Amino acid sequence: MRRLISIVGLVILSLLIPKLSYAEKKESPASIPGSTKVNAEQLIEAAEKYSDLVIIDSRIIDDRQQGYISGSHSLPDEETNCNSLSKLVPTLSSPALYYCNGPKCGRSGKAVKIALQCGYSKIFWFRGGFEEWKNKEYPLVKY
Description:
Elements: H1 2-25, E1 35-37, H2 40-49, E2 54-57, H3 61-64, E3 73-74, H4 82-88, E4 96-99, H5 107-118, E5 123-126, H6 129-135
């Protein structure tokens, strides 16, 4: 019986490992039609230009605990929908910027697509995300 349980466990593990490896290597798209892709410096410019810019951190809470961009709101991609966005972004034409961990993270891209489907029109996407922000040594907030 124990041997059967061990074999079943190995089979399940062998099925999961390729999926995990694929998920880690998957790149986010180069651009998302309807959004404006920005880098870290352009994020700063947008924050200076739009005093009402809403910055949304699409990462899960565990990732956010490693640090986050000051002033950002936590809204993980799996919780992003028209209702949750309406609580953070006041109007469909309000500027909103989305980020996650970086180019290998698809969370902010997913959130941007949801925002577009909800009718938001002034969407900025920081594809380089927290990885770029941290590598450039810009200020961040840590728990």
